[in-house]
């Protein structure tokens, strides 16, 4: 078969296998083994274990379980509620301060935990009832939390960015920095839309102020400042040349566990075991996908599918922005059905040569890819965050949650357009801190 026709067959079979209900990693291994056996013979199967474990033989991968433990320790405490209360008290005199507090808490908590569902649950349990009680529209209450929860895969430290760096052999430290300014820009866009929608459709009392004394504002800070210091410390250690990403992740995980035990009295061995067991389960799942994706990539390369697709696209006489539009459409559709880690590991090694040939910056593309993955988290048919919000606010219909999240999808699309016109938003901070590539 022609490589392009074979590539189409691989794509169809991969979709069929993944939709059959098997796990992503198992599905990739099944497809890889099947095509290698048919087109490359029995001997190629002998290489699969070596490729699988060779893909996992990387010191950088240690940062994944460490950052996951760091997030699990935070998610198991009242840190989300405390963070929300602290921001709400300090931003109360700002018009629309409550929704800004929710989005700010989502941004900080998702950066600490790295988990979108955990962020939605932690902030939503406090924020959604409070916003509804104050008269905010249900669409804003539900949609803002669902969208805010997605920020964790963009704002550092991000497990998704680590996976992209490993898949494409790019600098994880530079990827972290590349996500900072676009992440803040997205927070600003979310806040602007939330305040506009509330002002346009909410009651007149919604934007009213609630007063807190200085004592009430200060008494909440000791609970949240240590976590923020950890984030700053992790980033400083990484970019100050003190430690590698894996080493800083390990220190961050240990400190988060200590703070959870000291501040939140998380002494119970059962609770600590739950944190470690859940983190191990999630880490193994991601590492399993990474190994399986390595085998899948080898299969595509061995059958000359990757090279043929790259050559075919390079031969197309189209504007590079048209090409980028096609790539974005592909990522958007893939993100509707697959988790971000799976999409990155499957697509990034194929797309990166095409992106480089079209003279796009790989770190800029990482941010564009990640925002597309964020859209998938709040879009049907999967839309994981939508179902998390529905579970914590079951009296808000899923349809209303979906309609409330759509404007935030528009904000993300607008962010992609802005980054296309002003790529320096992504590249400025990495170039400033680490020098030009």
Describe this structure in words.
The structure is a single chain. With 437 residues, the chain is mainly α. It has helices at 3-18, 24-40, 48-55, 63-75, 79-90, 97-113, 116-133, 138-148, 159-168, 172-201, 214-219, 221-239, 245-262, 269-302, 305-315, 320-337, 340-357, 362-377, 384-392, 398-421, 424-434. The protein is globular.
In N-to-C order, the SSE pattern is HHHHHHHHHHHHHHHHHHHHH
Question: Main sheet?
Answer: none
The coarse silhouette is globular
Structural class: mainly alpha
Distance between the termini: 40 Å
Q: How big is the Rg?
A: 22 Å
Q: Approximately what portion of the residues adopt beta-strand conformation?
A: under 5%
Q: Quick check: average pLDDT? A: 83
DSSP helix count?
Answer: 21
Helix content: over 70%
For the secondary structure, the number of strands is 0
Low-confidence stretches: none
Secondary-structure map:
Elements: H1 3-18, H2 24-40, H3 48-55, H4 63-75, H5 79-90, H6 97-113, H7 116-133, H8 138-148, H9 159-168, H10 172-201, H11 214-219, H12 221-239, H13 245-262, H14 269-302, H15 305-315, H16 320-337, H17 340-357, H18 362-377, H19 384-392, H20 398-421, H21 424-434
Helix pairs in contact: 1-2, 1-15, 2-14, 3-14, 4-6, 4-13, 4-14, 5-6, 5-7, 5-12, 6-7, 6-8, 6-10, 7-8, 7-19, 8-10, 8-19, 8-20, 9-17, 10-18, 10-20, 10-21, 12-13, 14-17, 15-17, 16-17, 16-18, 17-18, 18-20, 19-20
């Amino acid at each position: 078969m022609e490589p392009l026709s074979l590539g189409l067959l691989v794509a169809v079979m991969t979709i069929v296998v993944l939709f059959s209900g098997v796990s992503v990693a198992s599905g990739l291994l099944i497809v890889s083994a099947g095509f290698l056996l048919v087109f490359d013979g029995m001997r190629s199967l002998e290489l699969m274990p070596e490729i699988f474990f060779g893909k996992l033989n990387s010191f950088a991968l240690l940062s994944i379980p460490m950052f996951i433990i760091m997030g699990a320790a935070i998610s198991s405490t009242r840190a989300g509620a405390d963070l929300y209360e602290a921001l709400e008290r300090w931003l109360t005199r700002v018009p629309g301060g409550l929704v800004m507090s929710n989005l700010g808490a989502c941004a900080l908590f998702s950066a600490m935990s790295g988990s979108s569902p955990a962020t939605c649950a932690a902030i939503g349990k406090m924020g959604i009832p409070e916003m509804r009680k104050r008269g905010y529209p249900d669409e804003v209450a539900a949609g803002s939390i669902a969208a805010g929860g997605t920020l964790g895969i963009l704002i550092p430290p991000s497990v998704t960015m680590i996976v992209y760096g490993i898949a494409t052999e790019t600098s994880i430290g530079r990827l972290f920095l590349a996500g900072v300014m676009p992440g803040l820009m997205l927070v600003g866009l979310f806040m602007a839309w939330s305040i506009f929608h509330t002002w346009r459709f909410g009651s007149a009392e919604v934007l009213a102020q609630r007063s807190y004394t200085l004592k009430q504002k200060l008494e909440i800070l000791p609970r949240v400042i240590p976590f923020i210091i950890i984030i700053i410390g992790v980033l400083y250690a990484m970019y100050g040349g003190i430690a590698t990403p894996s080493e800083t992740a390990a220190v961050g995980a240990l400190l988060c566990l200590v703070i959870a035990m000291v501040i939140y009295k998380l002494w119970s061995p059962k609770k600590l075991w739950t944190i470690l067991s859940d983190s191990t389960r999630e880490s193994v799942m991601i590492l399993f996908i990474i190994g399986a994706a390595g085998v899948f990539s080898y299969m595509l390369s061995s059958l000359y599918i990757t090279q043929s697709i790259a050559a075919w696209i390079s031969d197309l006489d189209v504007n590079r922005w048209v090409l980028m539009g096609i790539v974005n459409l592909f990522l958007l559709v893939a993100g509707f059905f697959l988790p971000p880690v799976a999409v990155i590991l499957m697509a990034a090694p194929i797309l990166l040569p095409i992106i480089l040939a079209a003279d796009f910056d790989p770190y800029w593309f990482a941010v564009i890819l990640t925002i597309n993955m964020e859209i998938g988290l709040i879009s049907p048919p999967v839309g994981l965050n939508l179902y998390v919000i529905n579970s914590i606010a079951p009296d808000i219909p899923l349809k209303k949650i979906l309609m409330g999240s759509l404007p935030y999808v528009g904000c993300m699309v607008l962010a992609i357009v802005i980054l296309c016109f002003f790529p320096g938003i992504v590249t400025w901070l990495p170039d400033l801190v680490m020098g030009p590539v």
